[in-house]
Design goal:
globular
């Protein structure tokens, strides 16, 4: 086992020492514009980012049976886990490939999910959001069930606000990290 851990640690160190692929100023501007668009779309109007949230919904719905296959109790968490893990694993994949701009875009996508999740959390008592397949939100609302399990149903709005703030933090950190990566790259490469 120690050899396995040593080998894994060696790979992490090797990865850390590899240079990132070159980042252009245009990539930073496009990523920042994407982040502003995402933040604006997810927090105004119908609060639905068409392309991303349709994908997020598919990953959410796929997460229920996937995680539910491990445990019936996990099924309710599977939706949120499904929509978070796909962009997270995609960002990690670009991290390993040392593609900073792509990694940052996936991190923004990950952060955008927090807005969507917060909206769903804030609906735990109100049951105003339509559910997939026309299900009765009073019977099938993930976050109502989760908050009831945890004894936090009355805190749904406060927790949703915290989660939404976390989304902004992730998005801003992704853009700042990309700009920092661009700033630190060697000029001669």
């Amino acid at each position: 086992m120690p050899d396995l851990l040593r080998g894994l640690w060696g790979r992490i160190v090797d990865l850390h020492e590899r240079d990132w692929q070159r980042v252009s100023g245009a990539a930073i501007a496009a990523t920042a514009a994407f982040a502003v668009f995402i933040g604006w779309s997810a927090n105004s109007g119908d609060r639905w980012v068409l392309l991303l949230d349709n994908a997020n919904l598919a990953f959410h719905e796929a997460g229920h049976p996937f995680f539910g296959s491990f445990s019936e109790r996990l099924a309710v968490y599977g939706g949120t886990l499904g929509q978070l893990l796909f962009p997270l694993f995609t960002a990690i994949g670009f991290w390993v490939r040392r593609e900073a701009a792509s990694c940052a875009v996936c991190a923004i996508w990950f952060g955008e999910n927090f807005f969507n999740i917060a909206r769903y959390m804030a609906d735990a008592r109100a049951h105003q959001l339509p559910l997939v397949g026309g299900l009765d939100p009073g019977l099938y609302h993930d976050w109502t069930e989760i908050f009831v399990r945890w004894g936090l149903l009355r805190q749904d709005l406060r927790i949703a606000g915290f989660v939404s703030s976390g989304g902004w933090i992730v998005i801003l950190c992704a853009v700042a990290w990309l700009a920092w990566t661009w700033y630190r790259q060697p000029e001669d490469s």
